[in-house]
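One-letter codes give the sequence; backbone shape is given numerically. An example follows:

. . .
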Amino acid sequence: MGWFNNLKAFKALAFGVIVASTGQAEEFDASTASFADRMNYYRAVDAAVWAMPLMNFKFYRDALAEAGVGPNVVGYNSQVQDWRFQTATPNNTTPYIHAYWNIKDGPVVFEMPPSADGVGIFGTIMDAWQRPLDDVGSKGRDRGLGAKYMMVPPNYDGPLVPNALVYEQDTNFGFAVLRPILAGGATEENLAKATALTKQIRVYALSEADGEIATDYVDVYGLPLEMTPKMDGDIYGHIHEMIGEEVVLDRDLAMMGALARIGVKRNGPFEPDSTMQAIYDAAGPNALEYMIDQYHRVLNPFVFEGKKWSALVPDGSRETEWSYEYPSYYDYVARGALYYAIITSVKNYGTATYYLDLAETPDGEWLDGRRNYKLNVPANVPVRDFWSITTYDLVTASYLRDINPSTIDSTMPDVVKNDDGSVDIYFGPDAPAGKESNWLPTDPKRRFFLLARFYGPEPSLLDSSFILNDMERMD
């Protein structure tokens, strides 16, 4: 069973974590720690959960910067990305497009080109907390006709770009995660068209709008993009850096006080002593395990009676437009758990796709890369287009490193069907004899989970009258 099935297990894990990131010999042991140190430990766990979406943005930005993609630059994949694209639950059917900006010194304009030659681009522009400002492109506000999206600070009353769609952005930083829509799949011809269209996206400061606008483009395909936050003791240094660069929102004032108590004070020095570093090194990993447990076992409702499949996106995200700010409270715990698992939100969650998550066996054990499993996908899955099953690392929520392939889908000609039309998919370190075309490899050192994606879902899938089977342990 998981480490966080109950509070007792949670405390047991917290009692002894060796400080690894600094090489010190000190441990944090809650059973012998002072009351003040225990309180700081709980504050640190809470703070890491609170900061999860902000850390997603920071690691996204930093990874792009390391790859040569600076502010107002467009990063793109000329081919469909592989496991080297390390971010939360990425798709691997179309290539990703990236951009980020900073409005601290003035508004920024993001120009989307119109769809062309059978290719469109779709995605979402967000603030640094992953809150959507709007969906853009062929399934967004401009409906593939192209538009200028202008991000301005709150209460801005300065000049505007004519005919631009204007959005107040509460944070200094904002970013976009986009993908081309490729009718007919990711063929070389379609990928070339997508790259050509991507190079018509422009990102620039308002101060440059009257001059010759030149946006740079960087092909990041094949580069290691480490966008997944590393939830170890060093995460508190990243939080300190980010809150110093960002606006403090009124909703977060109490958390800013808690952060100051543990040595993470905005515009103050970050100099943890050995005791505080030991607390950090215990709290960071435990915050992550808590979010993993909450996301896969608590936050999302199970979809099929008696089965372990759950919805990818919980209702709370849609109710609050992904902010988790309710009229009487602010559920940053649920928000942190959700953003452990996703890198992008959407303004309008449609019905063109349907995603399900599976992280456990029927007995409630985490899926273990050392073990062998089988998943039977019934015949006649109620979709208009196709379905796919993809493996992800349980800890990072990204692709399993050095593992290919990570996906099997119903369009693959080599996938063997059973006589009744169902499909058996095998998981494990080694392929069962004769089942290679229906096998997804796992890492024996890592836990993992699955996402089932359904493109063009029919009503019988959405109302759960169709049931997807649980994983079957084979050893």
